[in-house]
Amino acid sequence: MNGNLMVDIRILNDKEALGAAAADLGASAIRRAIAEKGKASIIVATGASQFEFLRSLVAVRDIDWSKVTAFHLDEYVGMDIDHPASFRKYLFERFVEPLGGKVKFYPINAETDAQSEADRLSRVIREHDIDVCFAGIGENCHLAFNDPPADFETEESYIVVTLDEACRRQQLGEGWFPDLAAVPKQAISMSIRQIMKSKLIILSVPDARKAQAVKYAVEGSVDPRHPASIVQEHPQTVLLLDPSSASLLA
Description:
Largest sheet: 7 strands, parallel
Shape: globular
Low-confidence stretches: none
CATH architecture: 3-Layer(aba) Sandwich
Strand content: 15-25%
CATH class: Alpha Beta
Mean pLDDT: 94
Number of strands: 10
Radius of gyration: 17 Å
Structural class: alpha/beta
Number of domains: 1
Number of helices: 7
């Protein structure tokens, strides 16, 4: 298997092993940051690809989570926190609450003025050096909600984006919405350049439906039409796959 030399590609046996590996790698980075500077800042993602990872991460017992600040990647515009598809609801239930609320979490609240919220979060995250970003890759090769063609140039940390149909169909296919019309058309997303500022990027990408996106991300050229391909330019990215998501790699 070739792949891009800048990306550390690891293939695990199944989703549970993939999630455990992501948590182990991330926990080591968090511990190291706390040991070196007394605190850590991280980015956490949502979606079906993150279930096993988050379950493993919150089970880690030797991290002082009161010294950790967490940001998340994206949220739908106009999404009420009580909606089953709300990403901040997802993270409160699977990350913040299992840790007893010790972690300092900055949720994205896009219910009203999305641009003002993007601007607010951009100001906040600029005050933090991100030690590790946990993320996935979308079926259309998106990174966060940076759908193709992604903006590789904006210096804003959070941006308001319009979701393409492939992205919206993925959300429908994962069971978050009853029909396509119910999937929001806009979101607040962390920008590509902000993600790339992370010292370590850990991408958890299981399932055959992601195989083509994985191939684009690591075997093609860096191209806004394949947003996750940007990680080829990152000095420390680990891509964790299962056999089905790795099935199209040369």
